[in-house]
Specification:
Layout: H1 2-44, H2 48-53, H3 61-71
Helix pairs in contact: 1-3
C-alpha cells in the first residue's frame, strides 16, 4: 500500500508541474497576443506618410507586429 501511495504522490507532482507548464505557456501566448494587438493598432493608426517615414508600408504592419510580439 505504501508503494501505491508513493506512486500517486509522484504522479500528482508530475501533474502539477504539467499544469504549471501549461498555465505558463497560456500566459506567455496571452502576453504575446497583447503585444501584437497593441503594436498592430498603433501602426494602423499612423498615416501612410508616417509609415513611409519609418520605412514601412501598410502591407508590412502585420509582419512587424508578429515580430514585435515574439521579441518581447
Amino acid at each position: 500500500m505504501a508503494y501505491v501511495t508513493n506512486t500517486n504522490t509522484v504522479a500528482t507532482a508530475t501533474e502539477a508541474r504539467g499544469l504549471t507548464a501549461l498555465f505558463m505557456a497560456v500566459a506567455e501566448k496571452w502576453r504575446q497576443y497583447r503585444v501584437y494587438r497593441t503594436t498592430f493598432s498603433e501602426l494602423m493608426s499612423l498615416s501612410d506618410r508616417e509609415l513611409a517615414d519609418l520605412g514601412m508600408s501598410r502591407s508590412m504592419i502585420r509582419r512587424v507586429a508578429i515580430e514585435a510580439s515574439r521579441e518581447h
